[in-house]
Amino acid sequence: MDVSIIVPLKDEEESLPELCTWIKRVVDEHRYSYEVILVDDGSADQSWEVIQQLSNQNPHIKGIKFQRNYGKSAALNEGFGAASGDVVITMDADLQDSPDEIPELYRMITVDGFDLVSGWKKKRYDNVMTKNLPSKFYNAVTRRMSGIYLHDFNCGLKAYRKKVVKSIEVYGEMHRYIPVLAKWAGFKKIGEKVVEHRARKYGVSKFGWERFVNGFLDLTSIMFIGKFGKKPMQFFGLIGSLFFFLGFIFVSYLVVSKLLQPEFGVTNKPAFYLALTAMIIGSQFFLAGFLGELVTRNAPERNSYMIEERVGLGNA
After folding, report:
1. Is the pLDDT score of 155 beyond 60?
2. What is the pLDDT of residue 229?
3. pLDDT at 141 over 90
4. Which helix (H) or strand (E) holds 243?
5. 3-state secondary structure of 47
6. Confidence label for 316 from pLDDT (cuts 50, 70 and 90)
7. CA-CA distance, 274 to 118, in Å (whole number)?
8. Which pLDDT score, from 0 to 100, does residue 140 have?
């Protein structure tokens, strides 16, 4: 199969028929073998019924329905697991992403050899204060922290080599930083393409102000996990050892002072409390690193979601 198109959605019953018709026109023009995987993230409207109708009309359209709302990261992760195409393309269901971008994204993966291509919505139709400015800030911070020079990390329109989506795990709110996850998984050739951003035609945005706080926390998590996720002892153990060594120096000073001056009061000196605090903190950090090692070696699967129904994908 040439391309898998994954569309996470919630309450998008109005836009789905138009989106699927548009996708079909584009892929038929270029004679791609394809599948469209629509992941219903707990919609409260008739989105799933629309997906079932579309699948009956076109066997290339497949669906996954979550039993409740888990978030965009969960929807993408399930879509990645089900995808069969050599190239995997993700886009939003609200018609703000243009399916006309598919052929060039496909070419950049198959011909130019990129592992991942992220869309860049250079001209946006979103609210300046609530979306554009915060987006620029987070993109700047992410570029600096990750060393990946993309303008728009959170653009829903992206293309991946199949091996990339099978090698990463997306959970929580990590969909914002998939390029960072790909980099930590060892995929180096990450590019971007200026894409058309269209004004929303139906419905309203499903993301609120809390995404700003979550975005910062998730970026911090990714940077830590990327460096120390498989070796937490190297982080916590190092800090714990430094604190413990600092406490040991203070203890040595107190012991030597007491031996040289028997009248020297140990417990009424600031060094005593500094030594006690440093050694306790050091022990706690060291223990945290040890427990972290045990957790990473015995952690169960992180992504486990209740899927109510599937269309065109089997029930396994």
Report:
1. yes
2. 63
3. no
4. helix 232-260
5. helix
6. very low
7. 50
8. 81
Closest CA to 175 of 258, 98, 296, 92: 92
Q: For residue 124, is pLDDT > 70?
A: no
Q: pLDDT for 168-178, tens place per residue?
A: 988 777 888 89
Mean pLDDT in residue range 72-98 = 94
* Strand ranges across the sheet with 307-311: 190-194, 116-120, 158-161, 87-90, 3-9, 34-40, 61-66, 307-311
Distances (CA, A) of 253 to 65, 115, 136, 180, 264: 66, 57, 52, 46, 11
Q: What is the DSSP string of 266-313?
A: STTSHHHHHHHHHHHHHHHHHHHHHHHHHHHHH---S----EEEEESS
**Cross-strand partners of 190:** 116
Question: What does DSSP say about strands 158-161 and 116-120: parallel, antiparallel, or unpaired?
Answer: antiparallel
Terminal-to-terminal C-alpha distance of the chain: 20
Q: Which residue has the tokens 């926390």?
A: 217
**CA-wise closest residue to 72 among 224, 215, 221:** 215
